[in-house]
Write a structure and sequence with these properties.
mainly alpha, rod-shaped
Length: 107
C-alpha cells in the first residue's frame, strides 16, 4: 500500500511539474517545445515554474505580429502611391509648362 501511495504522489508531482507544458499543448501554442525545454531546465524553481505557466497561458503574438506587418506594408504602399502621384503631377506640370513655352516661341 505505501508503494502505491508513493507512485500516485510521484505521478501527481510529475503532472504538476509538467502542467505548463500540458496547458501549452492544449492551447496549441507553437513554441511548446521551447517551453518544455525551459520547464525542464528552470521549472524546478518556483519562479521558473511560474514563468513557464505564465508563458503557457500567454496568448500567441503571431496575430499581433501579422497585424503590425500589415499596417507597415499598408503605410509603405500608401507612401509609394503618394510618391507616384507626386511624380506624375510634376511631370504633367512640366509638360504643360513646356507646351506653353513652345506655343509662345512660335509667335
Amino acid at each position: 500500500m505505501p508503494v502505491l501511495v508513493t507512485m500516485i504522489c510521484t505521478l501527481a508531482a510529475v503532472g504538476v511539474y509538467f502542467l505548463p507544458l500540458i496547458v501549452a499543448v492544449q492551447r496549441k501554442q507553437r513554441n511548446f517545445l521551447t517551453l518544455a525545454l525551459f520547464n525542464v531546465l528552470v521549472g524546478w524553481t518556483a519562479i521558473g515554474w511560474i514563468a513557464a505557466m505564465l508563458w503557457a497561458r500567454h496568448p500567441e503574438i503571431v496575430g499581433r505580429i501579422a497585424r503590425t506587418l500589415r499596417r507597415y506594408r499598408r503605410r509603405q504602399i500608401q507612401a509609394t502611391v503618394a510618391s507616384i502621384v507626386a511624380r506624375s503631377q510634376a511631370r504633367a506640370d512640366e509638360s504643360t509648362k513646356s507646351r506653353h513655352a513652345s506655343s509662345y516661341s512660335n509667335f
